[in-house]
């Protein structure tokens, strides 16, 4: 007798992927301007799946570091392209006057404060403590999109939106040197005199410079190739989806092959490509495509995080872990931001918003998995637990406040 119903697991995965993709299309529109952001909904869905399924008791995240790393990596580079396309005047000092302070002052202070906190409260080994500081230091370009500046063609005068977009665009790449500092520390020990020179010249100077230069050249070349060399009558026939992926993957892949920081290259390439007012209508369609791809992968990733939260709830509810997470989110990042912005012309509310809204998310997952793939870290599970709690608390805390914050942004 012919079997009508296919029980292959592959088909179940396809069905699940289709459902999650549908959710990624519907949820951002349903909950637009509500107090529940899409990431919150995806987390709750993941928790509900784990509660209903009950088959995840032996799940070990350390067995899946490579998969989590690559998924989070792809989400980040798409989000960085999206952020770069949004910035109206990427090479104007007015665009960067506040975010440079956040990058040069807030980020290092956050790393130092979080590293000390991890060592003091969680008894992390020095290498693990430094990695903890590095991985929670960037403002996430994925989850911070709720308060980022508007699509390319729409005028947006908000200093807060512009500051968060430009900060999130660069500090994911700038967290890499500090992550490598933790990797060197784990590999070579506390005698930094043996490796500090190599770290500084390679991981800081060369890789940042390579990402910046390749990103600029790639963005300039792609713009000239698409809009200057090809006939203007053919511009409307160019697939915006294919072009968006080219702007993302070409600079990223080339930079990584040459040993630079691909995150920096992707953001700089998108900024360079979009720095043309005469093609603003095309930038909108590129932005819209990258945003759609970003939404799909965010849904997958945070449903997975929700599942992990449910199956690891006993470890995550540790008092010291919760205290560490709350201190990072409510004290270390806001205070570091306030110090950086203290003598600026921003209002008290603007300083508070830029200081407080340093949401943690996909970038933290990526850097943690990246470091774990490079070297064995002490306290790996403690790092996973505290990072998960920080992400979850940040998603809820910053997400719930996003709707009320948007009403005050000017």
UniProtKB/TrEMBL annotation:
<feature type="domain" description="Cation/H+ exchanger transmembrane">
    <location>
        <begin position="22"/>
        <end position="403"/>
    </location>
</feature>
<feature type="transmembrane region" description="Helical">
    <location>
        <begin position="12"/>
        <end position="31"/>
    </location>
</feature>
<keyword id="KW-1133">Transmembrane helix</keyword>
<feature type="transmembrane region" description="Helical">
    <location>
        <begin position="319"/>
        <end position="342"/>
    </location>
</feature>
<feature type="transmembrane region" description="Helical">
    <location>
        <begin position="260"/>
        <end position="275"/>
    </location>
</feature>
<feature type="transmembrane region" description="Helical">
    <location>
        <begin position="354"/>
        <end position="372"/>
    </location>
</feature>
<keyword id="KW-1003">Cell membrane</keyword>
<feature type="transmembrane region" description="Helical">
    <location>
        <begin position="99"/>
        <end position="121"/>
    </location>
</feature>
<dbReference type="InterPro" id="IPR006153">
    <property type="entry name" value="Cation/H_exchanger_TM"/>
</dbReference>
<feature type="transmembrane region" description="Helical">
    <location>
        <begin position="38"/>
        <end position="56"/>
    </location>
</feature>
<keyword id="KW-0472">Membrane</keyword>
<keyword id="KW-0406">Ion transport</keyword>
<dbReference type="InterPro" id="IPR038770">
    <property type="entry name" value="Na+/solute_symporter_sf"/>
</dbReference>
<feature type="transmembrane region" description="Helical">
    <location>
        <begin position="206"/>
        <end position="226"/>
    </location>
</feature>
<feature type="transmembrane region" description="Helical">
    <location>
        <begin position="384"/>
        <end position="403"/>
    </location>
</feature>
<keyword id="KW-0813">Transport</keyword>
<dbReference type="Pfam" id="PF00999">
    <property type="entry name" value="Na_H_Exchanger"/>
</dbReference>
<protein>
    <submittedName>
        <fullName>Cation:proton antiporter</fullName>
    </submittedName>
</protein>
<feature type="transmembrane region" description="Helical">
    <location>
        <begin position="168"/>
        <end position="186"/>
    </location>
</feature>
<keyword id="KW-0812">Transmembrane</keyword>
<keyword id="KW-0050">Antiport</keyword>
<feature type="transmembrane region" description="Helical">
    <location>
        <begin position="296"/>
        <end position="313"/>
    </location>
</feature>
């Amino acid at each position: 007798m012919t079997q009508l119903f296919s029980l292959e697991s592959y088909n179940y995965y396809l069905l699940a992927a289709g459902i999650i993709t549908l959710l990624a299309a519907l949820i951002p529109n349903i909950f637009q301007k509500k107090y529940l952001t899409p990431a919150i909904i995806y987390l709750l869905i993941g928790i509900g799946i784990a509660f209903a399924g009950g088959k995840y008791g032996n799940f070990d995240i350390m067995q899946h570091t490579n998969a989590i790393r690559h998924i989070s990596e792809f989400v980040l580079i798409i989000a960085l392209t999206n952020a770069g396309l949004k910035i109206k005047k990427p090479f104007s000092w007015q665009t960067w006057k506040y975010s440079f302070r956040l990058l040069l002052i807030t980020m290092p202070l956050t790393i130092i404060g979080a590293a000390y906190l991890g060592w003091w409260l969680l008894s992390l080994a020095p290498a693990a403590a430094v990695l903890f500081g590095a991985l929670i230091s960037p403002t996430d370009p994925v989850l911070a999109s709720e308060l980022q500046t508007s699509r390319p063609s729409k005028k947006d005068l908000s200093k807060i939106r512009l500051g968060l977009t430009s900060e999130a665009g660069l500090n994911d790449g700038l967290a890499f040197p500090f992550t490598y500092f933790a990797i060197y520390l784990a590999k070579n020990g506390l005698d930094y005199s043996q490796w500090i020179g190599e770290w500084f010249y390679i991981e800081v100077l060369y890789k940042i410079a390579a990402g910046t230069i390749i990103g600029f050249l790639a963005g300039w070349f792609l713009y000239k190739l698409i809009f200057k060399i090809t006939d203007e009558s053919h511009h409307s026939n160019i697939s915006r989806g294919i072009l968006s992926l080219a702007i993302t993957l070409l600079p990223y892949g080339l930079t990584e092959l040459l040993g630079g920081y691909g995150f920096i290259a992707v953001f700089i390439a998108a900024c360079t490509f979009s720095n043309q007012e005469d093609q603003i209508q095309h930038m909108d369609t590129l932005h819209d495509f990258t945003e759609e791809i970003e939404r799909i992968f965010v849904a997958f990733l945070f449903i997975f995080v929700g599942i992990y939260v449910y199956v690891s709830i006993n470890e995550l509810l540790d008092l010291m872990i919760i205290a560490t997470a709350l201190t990072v989110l409510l004290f270390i990042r806001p205070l570091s931001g306030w110090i950086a912005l203290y003598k600026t012309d921003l209002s008290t509310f603007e300083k508070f918003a830029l200081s407080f809204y340093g949401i943690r998310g996909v970038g933290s997952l990526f850097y943690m998995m990246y470091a774990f793939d490079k070297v064995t870290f002490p306290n790996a599970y403690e790092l996973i637990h505290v990072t998960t709690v920080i992400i979850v608390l940040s998603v809820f805390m910053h997400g719930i406040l996003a709707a009320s914050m948007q009403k005050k942004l000017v």
